[in-house]
Amino acid sequence: MSFDRKTPDEVRLLTFDFSAKAAVGLTLSSPVVTVAQVLSGTGIIGDLTLGTPNVVDLTVTVLASAGTDGTRYRLKAEAQTSDGQTIEVERDLPVSASSAVVS
What is the tally of structural domains in the chain? Predict the structure, then answer.
């Protein structure tokens, strides 16, 4: 699953939904969001800047800025559950200065 395209100049709030992996009644803590890999384009992992992630109910949010035009990044969000699990959600983020699709 992918986020909507982001331009290199935008600062965007990204939301990772953990509701499919965390049972009802559980809470999340200790969120970590990283750039897991570059899927396409000329960018490198360090080109995309991620802020400090926050937990909101069963979601993790993070601000993303910068990134290389024409690059598709795979982002991984990880959180601890109140019953001791560590769960992950991955989503792709295309970065493009134009409305062209980044594959």
Answer: 1
Question: Beta partners for 59?
Answer: 17, 56
User: Which residue from 78, 77, 79, 75 is spatially nearest to 92, judged by alpha carbons?
Assistant: 75
pLDDT in tens, 8-58: 999 999 999 999 999 889 999 999 999 999 999 999 999 999 999 999 999
One-letter-per-residue 3-state SS of 9-49 = CCEEEEEEECCCCCCCCCCEEEEEEEEEEEEECCCCHHHEE
The angle subtended at Cα 77 by Cα 86 and Cα 17, nearest 5°, is 95
Considering the entire predicted model, what is its pTM? Answer: 0.92
Within a domain: 102: no
Calculate the dihedral angle through the C-alpha atoms of 40, 50, 99, 42, rounding to the nearest 10 degrees.
Answer: -30
